[in-house]
Specification:
This protein is of the alpha/beta class and about 375 residues long. The chain is about 40% helix and about 20% strand. Bound molecules: adenosine-5'-diphosphate and ligand VHF.
Length: about 375
């Protein structure tokens, strides 16, 4: 099997489009290019592939709209430019998606939204709800409210974290180069393209340099992003967004760009990633039936199988699941805090709304967030 088949089989894909490419190196939004990418995304959407777009360009477009030739150095001016530019960015995408009868949604995230477990789970549920509604989420960093100390800065990292958040099968990073070269091709004309590599190969960092005038991260953040995405099992393709029909051809498995592969199977990688959460905040004592379905059927943990709730935890915290005999069975990210878990313990999921006044998820721990120990 060719490794490119990973892209052919992908059902959920995060596409990241960088500033350098999107603004044609600072000449304002490249509308013909946006038209073409949206057309390709629409074709993939028709095939039933779930797509999430992470797009840069707010600051660059804000600079154009405000007539600034230099990227502002003062934080408040950058924030203002981002606020102006984000309007143009989403308008450009929305007007194109609508031509294909596809709804798009804007999501602006900050570092806190992904590092705080509760907000992480909330963002995840909201984006998954959009995907179920066949809407294409368009994500950018919320540049207007973040300060330098707490920002992702480059959208490669944001793209990878979104791929982790949604357990995407693939991350496609479109940029202004054909992929990762052995050295920055802007200053090394003899550099050659790496076509395929393991995402965590330490040699990659030596090859990758920083970015151009408009892009924030350069190739080094793309290499790091591929490593991050691999943790939840996603393969990353870095390719030139200027080649015709790039997204459709990538998903057909054509060989171009640089493909970064996770070492493990996606499933094992995701479980390893979950198992890496060392700190548990509480314990759920589960009955024998729940022990059996967790172990044998790889099921989610439903409130009905829980006998006892111990510890203080919040929605999104890691908790352990133990049998009534005290044997450690599994660990997972819990969907309800300990107070609400206590209220729904032993109950069928259809009673959650009645008992809590809301329903976050029918499971206490979803099987995707559960790892057997
Ligand atoms: N080894 C490398 N291979 C390819 N590009 C590299 C490498 N090292 C540095 N770069 C630079 O990274 C740039 C792309 O990153 P960046 O400017 O941040 O774009 P984007 O806005 O698409 O994220 C390229 O234009 C290139 O000059
Ligand atoms: N959030 C910023 C993106 C930062 C940026 O340019 O990132 P990248 O395209 O990864 O180099 C913006 O929209 O301008």
């Amino acid at each position: 099997m060719s490794q490119r088949d990973r892209l052919v089989r992908a059902k959920r894909v995060v596409v990241k489009i960088g500033s350098a490419l999107l603004t044609n190196d600072g000449k304002g939004l490249d509308l013909p290019a946006i038209t073409a990418w949206v057309e390709q995304m629409a074709a993939l959407h028709q095939q039933g592939i779930e797509l999430v777009l992470v797009s840069s360009g707010s600051v660059a477009e804000g600079m154009t709209r405000l007539g600034l030739t230099e990227r502002p150095s003062a934080l408040h001016q950058l924030q203002a430019a981002a606020a102006v530019g984000q309007m143009g960015l989403v308008q450009a995408y929305e007007s194109q998606f609508i031509r294909h009868g596809i709804r798009a949604a804007q999501i602006l995230l900050t570092h806190d939204d992904l590092s705080n477990r509760k907000r992480y789970l909330n963002a995840r549920s909201a984006i998954k709800a959009l995907l179920e509604l066949k809407v294409i989420p368009i994500i950018n960093e919320n540049d207007t409210v973040v300060t330098d100390e707490i920002r992702f800065g480059d959208n490669d990292t944001l793209g990878a974290l979104v791929a982790n958040l949604l357990e995407a099968d693939a991350l496609i990073i479109l940029t202004d180069q054909e992929g990762l070269f052995t050295a920055d091709p802007r200053s090394n004309p003899d550099a050659t393209l790496i076509t395929e590599t393991l995402a965590d190969d330490p040699k990659l960092a030596e090859m990758a340099g920083d970015g151009g005038r408009l892009g924030r991260g350069g190739m080094i953040t793309k290499v790091r992003a591929a490593g991050l995405a691999a943790r939840s099992g996603a393969a990353t393709l870095v390719a030139s967004g200027r080649q015709p029909n790039v997204l459709v051809r990538a998903i057909k498995g054509e060989s171009f760009g640089t493909l970064f592969l996770p070492e493990d199977t996606p499933w094992a990688a995701r479980k390893r990633w979950l198992a890496g959460h060392l700190q548990t905040r509480g314990t759920l004592v589960i009955d024998a039936g729940a022990v059996r379905v967790l172990r044998e059927k790889n099921s989610s943990l439903l409130p009905v199988g829980v006998k006892q709730v111990n510890g203080r935890f919040r929605r999104g915290d890691m908790v352990q699941c133990v049998s009534e005999q005290g044997e450690l069975i599994a660990k997972g990210l819990v969907n309800y805090d300990q107070e609400d878990s206590l209220k729904i313990l032993g109950q069928p999921s259809h009673r959650i709304t009645e008992l809590l006044g809301y329903v976050a998820e029918p499971e206490l721990i979803n099987r995707d967030n559960l790892v057997l120990v």
